[in-house]
Design a protein that fits this description.
Layout lengths: L1 E4 L14 H5 L5 E3 L5 E3 L10 H5 L5 E4 L2 H4 L4 E6 L3 E7 L5 E7 L9
Antiparallel strand pairs: 1-4, 2-3, 4-5, 5-6, 6-7
């Protein structure tokens, strides 16, 4: 899999010093470039965890899936709606499959 950033959609989360995807990347692989857009330091080091895909409010980050998983040229994007995350599998033929995953906040007052 490969994470790619669509530069036509990325605005670097506006004027904030650190964009949301940069904050959530566990490998510290994302940064804001001189054009105020998110960029990947080294794609080969990416863990494919999809944290940045889920965090991007503009859906500018997608995972490109290998043929075995999603079909040749398919992408996976996410939109966080608060109570759920909507995953969209966009296939090369233009069709889109959606998967809704409920977000749950687990709270244990005994911790």
């Amino acid at each position: 899999m490969a994470v790619k950033i669509d530069k036509s959609l990325c605005n670097g989360c506006g004027s904030c010093k650190e964009s949301r995807c940069v904050r959530v990347c566990p490998g510290n692989l994302l940064y804001k470039n001189d054009s105020n857009q998110a960029e990947i330091r080294d794609k080969r080091e990416c863990w494919d965890c999809a944290a940045c895909v889920k965090e991007c409010p503009r859906q500018a980050i997608a995972m490109y899936l290998p043929a075995e998983i999603g079909g040749r040229g398919s992408t996976l994007q996410a939109q966080d709606l608060g109570d759920k995350i909507v995953w969209k599998l966009k296939k090369l033929d233009g069709s889109i499959e959606e998967f809704n995953i409920q977000n749950k906040l687990l709270f244990n007052s005994n911790l």
